[in-house]
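Subject: design request, 399 residues
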């Protein structure tokens, strides 16, 4: 049972051809804010095959695919493509993250679909781009992390390349694509026509490296690993306390406050630490001085006193501790939803808030093809036609 779509995007219908993480991340942004998302899935795939994405009732799938309905459709059959084109004729958005040539081979690429529906906004994510020397390579988040330069600036100095602890390439590409899709929908309000919006894991992740990338493009400076120290804002980093570790930011104008709060009021006047440029040069020595003070008290004591002094400071949590934090609980980031099999579960709330539009998980992630009959009938197929499509292997029974 699905709940009515509400929200600022509720007037839009999205056909979701995505899988893995990057594409579903983009579609989730649209679904969370009310878009009517139809997840189009292949026939005969096995759920629960051991990969994180196919554990249908596992945490990852439930978190990625909430607020959607599902239909199975064989896009390798001419009639399956015909059904898809009928759906595409009235859709607002199509999202896919196939390798670039797959959509052309299936006959559902942007140029083909826009002849049917000039208003379509067609969103694509690939590993490396829709064209170019690497276009046909298979793309994966960790490969993109390495090629973007991210792994060269992550980790302790001299440690060797280190990946980020999340699939940041997938997530970044998904977020960029969602923004691009909404931008194209806004543009359509003026032009009356849609367009193809595409990004890649590589392009998105290079964009996310931001100031580290700009250090090269602007100043031809090759950034290195800085560990838990901020690469350029000094002192900012992780410090050991009497009972754990905390993060402290004390660079720039914060430096005097930090020194006073940790009992080193004369340190800013020391010639070795009197300016940001000099502190950068003497970072290791400065960190040792500050660390000796921080080790004297507990994490909770420092978090309280430093924040009171106007110095940003916070704990370093494990995931269970994150969701026990009172501010996190206040933000309601663990969002409840009822699943027919799993019962009451909590997924991760969308990362933005609107003053007029409260966030809600309307529906748990659907089972494969759970709404197949319902959706086909909405597009004008009769009971007999739906039965024939099933018999011909174009679609499958619900669920």
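Subject: RE: design request

Done. Sequence follows.
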């Amino acid at each position: 049972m699905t709940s009515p779509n509400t929200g600022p995007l509720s007037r839009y219908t999205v056909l979701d051809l995505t899988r893995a993480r990057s594409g579903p991340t983009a579609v989730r942004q649209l679904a969370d804010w009310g878009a009517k998302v139809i997840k189009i899935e292949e026939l005969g795939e096995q759920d629960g095959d051991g990969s994180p994405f196919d554990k249908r009732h596992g945490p990852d799938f439930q978190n990625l695919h909430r607020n959607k309905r599902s239909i199975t459709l064989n896009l390798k059959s001419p009639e399956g493509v015909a059904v898809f084109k009928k759906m595409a004729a009235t859709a607002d958005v199509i999202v896919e993250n196939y390798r670039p040539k797959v959509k052309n081979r299936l006959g559902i690429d942007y140029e083909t679909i826009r002849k049917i529906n000039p208003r379509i906004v067609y969103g694509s994510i690939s590993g490396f781009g829709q064209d170019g020397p690497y276009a046909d390579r298979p793309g994966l988040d960790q490969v993109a992390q390495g090629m973007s330069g991210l792994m060269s600036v992550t980790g302790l100095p001299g440690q060797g390349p280190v990946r980020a602890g999340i699939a940041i390439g997938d997530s970044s590409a998904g977020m960029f694509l969602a923004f691009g899709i909404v931008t194209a929908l806004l543009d359509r309000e003026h032009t009356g026509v849609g367009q193809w919006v595409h990004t890649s894991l590589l392009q998105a992740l290079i964009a996310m490296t931001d100031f580290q990338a700009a250090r090269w493009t602007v100043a031809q400076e090759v950034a290195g690993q800085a560990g838990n120290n901020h690469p350029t804002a000094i002192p900012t980093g992780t410090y050991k306390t009497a009972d754990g570790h905390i993060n402290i930011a004390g660079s720039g104008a914060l430096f005097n406050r930090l020194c006073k709060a940790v009992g080193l009021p004369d340190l800013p006047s020391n010639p070795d630490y009197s300016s940001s440029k000099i502190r950068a040069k003497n970072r290791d020595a400065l960190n040792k001085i500050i660390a000796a003070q921080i080790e004297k008290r507990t994490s909770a004591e420092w978090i309280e006193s430093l924040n009171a002094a106007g110095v940003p400071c916070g704990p370093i949590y494990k995931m269970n501790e994150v969701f026990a934090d009172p501010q996190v609980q206040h933000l309601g980031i663990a969002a409840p939803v009822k699943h027919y099999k799993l019962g009451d579960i909590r997924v991760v709330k969308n990362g933005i808030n609107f003053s007029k539009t409260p966030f809600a998980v309307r529906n748990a992630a659907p089972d494969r093809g759970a709404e197949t009959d319902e959706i086909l009938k909405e597009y004008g197929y009769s009971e007999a036609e739906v039965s024939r499509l099933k018999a011909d292997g174009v679609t499958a029974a619900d669920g």
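The mean pLDDT is 96.
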